[in-house]
């Protein structure tokens, strides 16, 4: 059954996913924080842009220790974001526009203020004690093992009242659930059903590879490659605290819940090397539909290396599995800061022409960059906990830049994070009617991808050329596109070995190149990308 579904080419095979960080997309009530009504008011923009689905980061009740990734009620809406009525309205309005809505599911941990944890910590014999991971201290009274928190310090927090430690992979305000407990499993599956019954189109599952830990709680081995500038979490290799074999049983159960509904998608947030990542498709595709592939946010921006990685990824995907690509998110530096402004169109073309579902991050379509946040304004706990390491995620979470009015049209109040000084130049309104803008470029790329089966479901074949060029062919039936991307700033000549390509440039980072006929050698400018429709 699963296989058949995979091959039918569902919306999430063909479409483009757009991530909204709800705090920063559009404020409707002047509190300086984005909300659901704000998102609704911008749906026409997203439809115009041409994206298929929106994934919205957590909107649930939360004390906001980790900006919504610490959930205190899985089936509610944080009043700051609106009401359940607003949510129903959002869902309906998304569907009316023939788009899809994906929600964030955070099953690895709750907030410490979630009633489940409140019960669990109330006494050792509370029925929910085993819903979390409680351990006695080591013999000398110290932490049960050497596991570290991603956000700095130990992963264990002492509870004075019941004289045990609990485990938290992230903040101490985010205690990890014990996924070996069937009651926990059922409780989260019920949460999934609650939202799926409402009609949402799928979930992006937070830190999926963290969900099960070693049952013997063995120490993680030290990381021989650790360097001072790295997050303290990387001092040890999380060999026993993440990516355990049993996680796949859990994922398969989540998939089963999803399969009871029509055409929903299950996406896993998983930061692992390719050979480990692809195991999350599960045995016979009983895992997630899309294990997020973060190669474009983590690999060196080097054509040869990337092209080898793409081949490795293509080769590693199991039969029936569908590839995907992510260009940015709320945890990573923005693409245009990572590869630089001059390469950001090239990056967009790569994202939107590779084989597999693309996920883009709000604001990338107008070339938003990481915004420097003065130390006294830093809000992200990862930044605050390790202040010397430049790990704050605030810079990539700043308000969407809509127009050149005060606060870029994001809010009438004081934005929760500051805007960059250049927002009057870099915004949707300014770029909308400019044929040479990033926004026009992204919109045209998305349109081309959506219109051409070769680009959204066609085959992929690498083309070997110069070291500075990443080139490949996408093909569906007899329609073929050659994509050539120069990942450097220097011009060079594209010359494929043993083959002559003839065709017409249909889309280019510099629109002046479009319409040009190509024969044999092709001169490529620095920072240029072209899509050639082959004869
Ligand atoms: C991954 C989320 O994307 C990130 O923002 C969050 O801090 C951690 N998971 C913990 O939930
Ligand atoms: Mg608001």
Structural notes for this entry:
This protein is α/β, with parallel strands linked by helices and 535 residues long. The chain has helices at 2-7, 11-14, 36-41, 43-49, 84-96, 115-122, 182-198, 247-259, 274-277, 295-298, 303-316, 335-338, 344-353, 381-385, 428-432, 438-451, 453-456; strands at residues 17-20, 53-56, 100-105, 134-135, 156-159, 164-167, 202-205, 265-268, 290-291, 324-326, 357-361, 459-463, 469-476, 479-486, 492-494, 502-508, 517-519, 522-524, 529-534. The strands form four sheets. Strands 9-8-7-3-2-1-11-10 form an eight-stranded parallel sheet. The radius of gyration is 23 Å and the shape is globular. The two termini are 38 Å apart. Bound molecules: 1-deoxynojirimycin and magnesium ion (MG).
Task: Please outline the helices and strands.
Blueprint: H1 2-7, H2 11-14, E1 17-20, H3 36-41, H4 43-49, E2 53-56, H5 84-96, E3 100-105, H6 115-122, E4 134-135, E5 156-159, E6 164-167, H7 182-198, E7 202-205, H8 247-259, E8 265-268, H9 274-277, E9 290-291, H10 295-298, H11 303-316, E10 324-326, H12 335-338, H13 344-353, E11 357-361, H14 381-385, H15 428-432, H16 438-451, H17 453-456, E12 459-463, E13 469-476, E14 479-486, E15 492-494, E16 502-508, E17 517-519, E18 522-524, E19 529-534
Helix pairs in contact: 7-8, 13-16
The protein binds 1-deoxynojirimycin and magnesium ion.
Magnesium ion (MG) binds at residues 27-29, 31, 33, 35.
């Amino acid at each position: 059954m699963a296989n058949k579904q995979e091959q039918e080419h569902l919306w999430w095979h063909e479409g483009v996913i757009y991530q909204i960080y709800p705090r920063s997309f559009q404020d409707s009530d002047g509190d300086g924080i984005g909300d659901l009504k704000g998102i609704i008011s911008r749906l026409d923009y997203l439809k115009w842009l041409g994206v298929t689905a929106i994934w919205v980061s957590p909107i649930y009740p939360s004390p906001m220790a980790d900006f919504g990734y610490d959930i205190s009620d899985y089936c509610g809406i944080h009043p700051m974001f609106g009401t359940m009525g607003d949510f129903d309205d959002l869902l309906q309005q998304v569907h009316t526009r023939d788009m899809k809505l994906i929600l964030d599911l955070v099953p690895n941990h709750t907030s410490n203020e979630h009633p489940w944890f409140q019960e669990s910590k109330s006494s050792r014999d509370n029925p929910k004690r085993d819903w979390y991971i409680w351990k006695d201290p080591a013999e000398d009274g110290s932490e049960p093992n050497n596991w570290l928190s991603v956000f700095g310090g130990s992963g264990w927090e002492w509870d004075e009242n019941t004289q045990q430690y609990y485990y938290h992979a992230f903040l101490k305000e985010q205690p990890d659930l014990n996924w070996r407990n069937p009651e926990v499993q059922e409780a989260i599956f019920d949460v999934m059903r609650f939202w799926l019954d409402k009609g949402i189109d799928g979930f992006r599952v937070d830190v999926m590879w963290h969900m099960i830990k070693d049952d013997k709680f063995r120490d993680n081995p030290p990381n021989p490659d650790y360097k001072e500038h790295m997050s303290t979490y990387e001092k040890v290799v999380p060999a026993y605290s993440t990516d355990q074999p049993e996680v796949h049983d859990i994922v398969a159960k989540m998939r089963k819940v999803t399969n009871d509904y029509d055409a929903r998608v299950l996406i896993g947030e998983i930061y692992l090397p390719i050979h480990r990542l692809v195991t999350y498709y599960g045995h016979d595709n009983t895992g997630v539909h899309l294990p997020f592939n973060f190669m474009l946010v983590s690999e060196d921006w080097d054509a040869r290396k990337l092209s080898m990685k793409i081949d490795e990824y293509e080769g590693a995907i199991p039969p029936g599995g569908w590839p995907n690509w992510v260009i940015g998110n709320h945890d990573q530096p923005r693409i245009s800061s990572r590869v630089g402004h001059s390469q950001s169109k090239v990056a967009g073309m790569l994202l939107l022409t590779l084989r597999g579902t693309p996920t883009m991050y709000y604001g990338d379509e107008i070339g938003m960059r990481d915004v420097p946040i003065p130390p006294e304004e830093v809000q992200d706990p990862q930044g605050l906990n390790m202040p010397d390491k430049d790990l704050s995620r605030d810079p990539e979470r700043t308000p969407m830049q809509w127009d050149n009015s005060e606060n870029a049209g994001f809010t009438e109040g004081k934005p929760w994070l500051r805007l960059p000084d250049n927002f009057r130049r870099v915004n949707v309104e300014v770029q909308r009617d400019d044929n040479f803008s990033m926004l026009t470029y992204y919109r045209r790329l998305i349109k081309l991808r959506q219109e051409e089966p070769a680009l959204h479901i066609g085959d992929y074949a690498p083309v070997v050329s110069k070291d500075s060029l990443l080139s490949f062919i996408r093909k569906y039936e007899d329609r073929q596109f050659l994509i050539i991307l120069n990942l450097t700033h220097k011009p060079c000549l594209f010359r494929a070995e043993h083959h002559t390509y003839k065709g017409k440039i249909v889309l280019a980072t510099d629109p002046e190149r479009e319409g040009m006929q190509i024969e044999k050698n092709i001169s490529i400018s620095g920072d240029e990308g072209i899509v050639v429709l082959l004869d």
